Amino acid sequence: MTYKLVGENRLKMVMQAKAKEKTTPLNLVHRSYWNLGGHNNEDIFSEEIQILGSGYTHLDDNLTPTGKILAVKGTPFDFRQLRPIKDNINELKTG
């Protein structure tokens, strides 16, 4: 994981992995949470986020990855354009 400050008030995170000997299944997950509004801000839902990812891992009813990669387009997971985290949060089963 590489963190980089880009421009003014922007953080870029890049996750990379490379198998040393054999092709290896990989599901990179980022679980760090920052309240960028400061410690007096109650939640992060008004913060804006952009994730340049076109797909996400499908989960079964037990929240276990199935191996299918689904498109984010038209789903609550679509953060390809900058928007508040709170957008569509109620549409997520696990939100």
Describe the structure.
This protein has 95 residues and is an all-beta fold. Helix content is 0%, strand content 25%. It contains no helices and six strands. Strand 1 and strand 2 form a beta hairpin. The two termini are 25 Å apart.
Q: What general outline do the C-alpha atoms trace? A: globular
Name the helix and strand elements from N-terminus to C-terminus, one letter apiece: EEEEEE
- Supply the helix-strand structural class: mainly beta
Structure annotation, total helices: 0
Strand fraction band? 25-35%
Name the average pLDDT: 84
Helix content: under 10%
Distance between the termini: 25 Å
Q: Which runs of at least 5 residues are low in confidence (pLDDT < 50)?
A: none
Q: What's the alpha carbon Rg, rounded to whole Å?
A: 16 Å
Number of strands: 6
Describe the largest sheet.
Answer: 2 strands, antiparallel
Strand order in the largest sheet: 1-2
Keywords:
95 residues; mainly beta; two-stranded antiparallel ribbon; two-stranded antiparallel sheet; 6 strands
